[in-house]
Specification:
Layout: H1 11-43, H2 51-67, E1 74-76, E2 89-93, H3 99-103, E3 112-116, H4 125-131, E4 135-137, H5 154-161, E5 168-170, H6 188-196, E6 199-206, E7 226-229, H7 235-238, H8 243-268, H9 277-299
Parallel strand pairs: 1-7, 2-5, 2-6, 3-4, 3-5
Antiparallel strand pairs: 6-7
Amino acid sequence: MKEIQDNFKIRYIFYTIYGWGLFAVIFTALFLIFAPICLLLCIFGIDKKRKTIIWCIKLACRIFFFLFIGHTIILKNNGVGRMEKGEKRMYLINHSSIYDVILAYILPGASRFVIKDKWMKKPFVGWIQHLAGNVVVGEDKPENHQIADGEPDSIMETVKAFEQEMPIIVFPEGTRSKNGQIQRFKRGAFKIALTGHVDIVPVIMDDWNCVRPTGAGVWIRNIRPYITILPAIKYEQYKHLTHAELAKLMRSIMTRKLYEMREEQKAADKKNYRHAAKFVEEDKKVKENLDTLEKELKEKNIELINYHLS
């Protein structure tokens, strides 16, 4: 069989021009038509939780997915639906592409993101983020950082956001993965989970090949993103762990699922890009490191209570 090559293809040009052009038109309309209405609803106290703008963005994303010719989202949600009353939920998503943020709006219900403050300074993007009431945090601090007087505690600010009775979306890697593999998790997300007694819903996205962060970072190569939503992990199932142990365990679970998703795709499609030699070698190393990590966790009895993956 002819060896698979990871080369640039002509169809990527069509995907990119059509995809980003369509996205720009839809979200410009959103900003010009719906954002002012949502702003007025907030000012007059009609929509104090700012859900209207979130549902408008979700609708805009759904329209984008529908009108993007050939675009298909392969979603396995394992029965995860909207958050029930009284529940506190955190969606934990691996971050490998700017497309993750758009795809996140397919998750059940209205959700808010935890975003870095640098995004609030950008025109249009920052305005929408502010209007949507997303949780803003500063740059990552060292583990031994002591909070000074007057300095906002990002963890407690995020915990308070759960009082709005909406799920919070967190990218625990803190930034996009350059190679599409799940990187080391920052511990802040797990301090939030343990402090807030929230349910964790792991969401594994395999969309790195849709819009790779390397190079120009804008070429749309693939229009078939794969998403798996794992069953919720209740606070009672992980409360015995430290935030460091929980971070390591969640990375293990999500890395295993991403590896399995890619292996399934490779088995079903002999032309899948991960058949290229460099990706075969990369996945082999991921498997070896994952086996080592899982062995370490097992030896230290770092595991969830009565949780079974689907």
